[in-house]
Amino acid sequence: MNGFLGRYEKRLDDKGRLSLPVPLRRAAGDGPLVLLQYQPPALSLFPGTAWGKIEERLKDYRRSDRSADMHVLRITSFSVEVTPDKLGRFVIPGWLQEAASLKDEVLVVGSLDRIEIWNPGLFDSHIEDAAPDASEFMHKIFG
Hints:
The chain is built from six helices and eight strands; from the N terminus they run ββαββααββαββαα. By secondary structure, the protein is an alpha+beta fold. The mean pLDDT is 92.
């Protein structure tokens, strides 16, 4: 199976490290990941292959639209490269923890081509607010 699925309750350790759940770690593969906040309040974590495609779209956008520089700069300045250790742990910088209102408990959610990291209290309310009636969407996807 390809892609990231599921939701996992995790804790940040005292050094601000998060340990990726094993199924998500396997799907991400080895190598660096890109962690950023482009859509508050969550953080997004992209494996290198998915980030490479986004990077190409950002370059194309910047080449084709003179006003794109500030948009691209905002995205890249809210991004860091992280490499999980042998236990799947990586540090979430303090400024990103603050931006996503992350404390001890975090919710790690698979989202197809990316992993999202949420404050658990914000996740459920955000989902409810974003899709009060999801039946039409569900019908389009599942028939």
